[in-house]
Amino acid sequence: MTPRPSTKQGPQSRSLVSMKLGEGQHSIELAPRPPHFPIARYNCFEFAFGLAGQREVQLIAGQFSSTFCNSEFAQYLVDSVLAQVTSPSVGDLVLYHDNKQITHAGLIEATNGVCSKWGTGHLWLHGLLEVPARYGDVTSFYHRPVPMETLTRFIEFAREREGRDLVDHILYLETEA
């Protein structure tokens, strides 16, 4: 039976990372920044796009099981607003791909360093390709838009998928409550 990852940020979490990678060398460590929103309540895309804890994202995702901040939304941003870069800088986005689609997102932290959220678990600092194999090993880099622009794009994404009137009604009802 595989041990369940710890929710504590301590030696047990580090040992699980080492166990998963075998005894090889790696640079993976827990990110020192504390999350501003309960860590299990957002994913890698919400973190990387600056949308973790945004009320509108939570409302829309709570109403529509197929419309949330995921790889489809990341592709929507790539197709509409993200500016690709060849030499990423601190704060830029890194998107991971398998052969078919975007699978994961993170932020460039330092030279060849990334901060990203793995599943419902922790935020990790890691080397560019030190991610779970299912995320793929193809990367692309983009300037990160300001979170308010990304939030506006998320609402547009939801309106296109679910209908403007319905999305606006959900957002309006919440502001009236």
Summarize the helices and strands and which ones pair or pack.
Layout (H helix, E strand, L loop, with lengths): L10 H11 L7 E2 L13 H5 L6 H9 L7 H10 L3 E2 L7 E5 L4 E9 L2 E5 L5 E5 L10 E5 L4 H16 L1 H13 L1
Antiparallel strand pairs: 1-6, 2-7, 3-4, 3-7, 4-5, 5-6
Helix pairs in contact: 3-6, 5-6
Describe the fold and architecture:
The chain is an alpha+beta fold and 177 residues long. It has one domain (29-176): endopeptidase fold (from Nostoc punctiforme). 36% of the residues lie in helices and 19% in strands. The protein is built from 6 helices and 7 strands, in the order αβαααββββββαα. The chain is globular, with a radius of gyration of 17 Å. The termini are far apart. Residues 41-142 form the DUF7689 domain. InterPro entries: DUF7689. It comes from Candidatus Nitrospira kreftii.
What's the number of structural domains? Answer: 1
What summary fits the major beta sheet?
7 strands, antiparallel
Separation, N- and C-terminal Cα atoms: 46 Å
Provide the spatial order of strands within the biggest beta sheet.
1-6-5-4-3-7-2
Helix-strand topology string: HEHHHEEEEEEHH
What is the CA-based Rg, rounded?
A: 17 Å
| Gross geometry | globular
Query: Are there runs of 5+ residues with pLDDT below 50, and where?
Result: 1-20
Percent of residues in beta strands? 15-25%
Q: Which secondary-structure class do the elements indicate?
A: alpha+beta
Helix content: 25-40%
What's the total helix number? 6
The CATH architecture assignment turns out to be Alpha-Beta Complex
How many strand elements? 7
Mean pLDDT: 85
CATH topology: endopeptidase fold (from Nostoc punctiforme)
CATH class: Alpha Beta
